[in-house]
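Run log, item B.
One chain of 363 residues. Sequence copied directly from the ordering sheet:
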Amino acid sequence: MRRSPLTARKAPWRALPLSSFKINWDPEATMSCRSWIRLAGIAVMSAVLGCPLLCAHPVMANDPVARLFGDTVLVTQDGKRVHFYDDMIKGKIVAIDFIYTSCHYSCPLETAQLAQVQRILGKRVGSDIFFYSISIDPAHDTPQVLKAYMAKFHVGPGWTFLTGKKADIDALSKRLGMYSNPWINPDGHLPHLLIGNDATGQWMQGDGLDNPYLQARMIGEFLDNFKHDNLTAQQHSVSSGAPLAKFNRGAYVFGRDCMACHTIGHGDKVGPDLLGVTNVRDPQWLRRMIQSPNEMFGEKDPIAMSLLRKYKNLRMPDVNLTTGDLNLLIAYLRSESRRMQQSQSTGAQAGSDKAAGAVAKNK
């Protein structure tokens, strides 16, 4: 079976007791699978009941538990020195991942996904929610490089990129349980996302490539004890007898693996608008580009290389689609493009008719 660099991902969201953060990291000192399942069950029940995690431990400014996070000195994309806990974590709702800007596989998608989460959460990011991306390649990722990388993904306020000393960053990632063996895959790390509310002590770790709407809900609602949820409106919609939208498996695949970088008919994002792509690209080329982009780049395919240059050398990641998912995705791209084009045509015709009517009325 073809194996992707991302094959080892898809860890479920799991609750983290503060005891899982390590002062002296020991690769053998990990909780059993059964313990994690038990904690995940607690997290699900807490989400349903709208109450804090039972394993949560409030972290106060004078609480020695705060020392578990460490106070590593890092440097922001603006060249400002900051202390990891005191300046970045203390009292805040946060999302933390580890990336590096020359990564070819998961990092671009991970960053694009988190950029979408930022858009979903809106002005709360930078107000009561903060994102932090820490480079695991600080020798290359200077503040200037990080700032340029942020521009590629249209990163907004409230999301800070950080660099520092390699030894300090490795120690921090181990302390947070987010360290990856550099030989684990071609990326040299797995796309974990750590989210937490320091004020309540609620912490969870999951897949950095998970559905952005799920991530936004976990960060913006679950960690905030549902102070900002919209469950009442959703429950009214269901109880009113309104039919649920028909589930479209192709739309699901697009939302899961493509929507962070692409739109269909709404303009370019970090990647091209895919409106009509099934009509303008050779079918076999399109299938290969979606399923094996790194092979296409390796072969210096002229279209693939042209797209790479146009979109700021951000490589399309290999998301390891099955043949079944690929077929569903292409069918969805075709049908959604047709729907969008028909909608645009109808809108243009209506505008033309309205203009003609106004001219006739003025005669």
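Observations after the first pass:
- Strands lie at 14-15, 73-76, 81-83, 93-99, 129-135, 159-163, 192-197, 202-207.
- The chain is about 45% helix and 10% strand.
Flagged for discussion on Thursday.
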